[in-house]
Amino acid sequence: MYFAIASARRGDTNLIMGNIIGAVILPATFVLGLVALIHPIHVNGSQFLVGSRIFLLAAGALFFIFSATSRRIGRVEAVILMLVYVAFLAFAYLTAESGGL
């Protein structure tokens, strides 16, 4: 995260994106793979999987639309992306509460 902030101060947007994406993808996939090596993961609840894919596609589409139209992600776009994340968290919580996770 330090390098992303330092890159932002210098205005190096490509380095920012690489650092942020790498900081999210590497730990998530590494931890998931490590857990699966120790004990196989059985996923119950196709409702959660379908919903997760929809949120992933929506966030990706919004990101590419925002970055393609103005060539930058400003505060308004960032708030919209964070709201999509909050909606996903609410969806995951409600799905888990109903036994679908």
TrEMBL record:
Keywords, sorted A to Z: Membrane, Transmembrane, Transmembrane helix
Protein name (record): Sodium/calcium exchanger membrane region domain-containing protein
Membrane topology designation: Multi-pass membrane protein
Keyword Cell cycle found: no
Sequence intervals crossing the membrane: 20-42, 48-66, 78-96
One of the protein's GO biological processes: transmembrane transport
Pfam families assigned to the protein according to its UniProt record, in alphabetical order: Na_Ca_ex (PF01699)
Gene Ontology CC: one annotated term: membrane
Location relative to the cell: Membrane
Taxonomy, superkingdom: Bacteria
Residues annotated as domain Sodium/calcium exchanger membrane region: 4-93
InterPro entries named among the record's database cross-references: NaCa_Exmemb (IPR004837), NCX_ion-bd_dom_sf (IPR044880)
